[in-house]
Amino acid sequence: MGRRVHWAGIGPNPLRRRVDRAEAWFAMVLTVAVVACGPVLVWRSGETAYDRAAAAADWQRNRFVPVHAVLLQDTGDFIPVYGEDGKAKAAVQAEWTAPDGTRRVGPVIPPAPGTAGTTVLIWTDSAGNPGERPDSDPMGAAIGVGLLIALLLVAVHAGVLLGVRWWLDRRRMAAWQQEWKDVEPRWSGRR
């Protein structure tokens, strides 16, 4: 235990100044606080992100419904359009039945290449207009937010410790310089 106290810098070393011991205590208390409260904060923020992403996914699932559409053209006949995910997508004419029972014809982006007459799954709103497939990932949102909060906690912890050390180092150097001004004339014999 004595080695740990010595390593932490809080032991009764006669060469340590009061400000050195205060810095060691501050670092220890801050670290214990981050270690004790950090996991709870990470868990709660991840849980909140999960709940919000799950609510968004439910909203998307309630807004868009899957329907089967029959392609009226081959997907290879058109110049591909690149989506946000970087994958090539080609809009082709298709026919489908809207949720209200009306037959609809219009351009759709099929999930995979196909030929005329191929049945594909598309997502439409309640009016039958094609839309994007709901792809909210609540678990991915929770993990991402949790990792971000954990990294932010580590960065804030390190920043506070470095800021306090910088401020205390300035005070230590000023005190050292003042002490040297007091001692140097007696030591060197100059007045």
From TrEMBL:
Record carries keyword Membrane: yes
Membrane-spanning intervals of the chain: 24-43, 141-168
Alphabetically ordered keywords of this record: Membrane, Transmembrane, Transmembrane helix
PANTHER family noted in UniProt: MEMBRANE PROTEIN RV1733C-RELATED
Protein name as annotated: Integral membrane protein
Naturally occurring in which organism (per UniProt): Virgisporangium aurantiacum
